Each structure stands twice: as structure tokens, then as C-alpha cells.
Amino acid sequence: MALLISEECINCDLCPAECPNEAISMGDEIYQIDTARCTECVGHYDEPRCVDVCPVECIEQDPANKETLDQLAEKYAAMYA
């Protein structure tokens, strides 16, 4: 499942630098995650780095983009083939 940044985001600028897939960018008001690029850090780290560094815990699972661990690994493999 890709991740989602909620409206509680304070634009602290920590998460974009932590994302190895460059999936996080500034939206109209808060940061947003590109679901096509988000692998929840599968292939890079054991846990999503953005979630680890978020000071307000506003990054959560995106229920509209459910993916299995295998699907995330396939997405990672396709991006870095």
C-alpha cells in the first residue's frame, strides 16, 4: 500500500530528503506522495523512512492504494531495472 500524508502535515521538510524513490513533493498546501513511486521503502529500508522522521506522525497507509509486499517489491524492481 502506498503511503498518504494527511492534513496534519506541518511542512517540516524532513520527509522529501528521506525518500529514496523521490516520491514526495510539495502539493498545493502540504507535501504529497506519488503513489506510482512509493514502495514504502521496500528495496531500500526495513521501514518507511518518511514515517520514521515525521515529527507529527501524519503519514499513514493510503486505503485507496492497497498493495502487497510483493507488489511493492515488483514496483521497486521495475523502477530500478
Structure write-up:
With 81 residues, the chain is of the alpha+beta class. The protein has one domain (3-79): Alpha-Beta Plaits (2-Layer Sandwich). The protein has helices spanning 15-18, 49-53, 69-79; strands at 3-5, 24-26, 31-33, 59-61. Strands 1-4 form a two-stranded antiparallel sheet. A two-stranded antiparallel sheet has the order 2-3. It is globular. The two termini are 21 Å apart.
Low-confidence residue ranges:
none
Largest beta-sheet characterization: 2 strands, antiparallel
From the coordinates shown, what is the CATH architecture? 2-Layer Sandwich
Q: How many structural domains are formed by the residues? A: 1
Q: What's the gyration radius in Å?
A: 12 Å
**Sequence of strands across the biggest β-sheet:** 1-4
What level of helicity do the residues show?
A: 10-25%
Q: What distance separates the N and C termini?
A: 21 Å
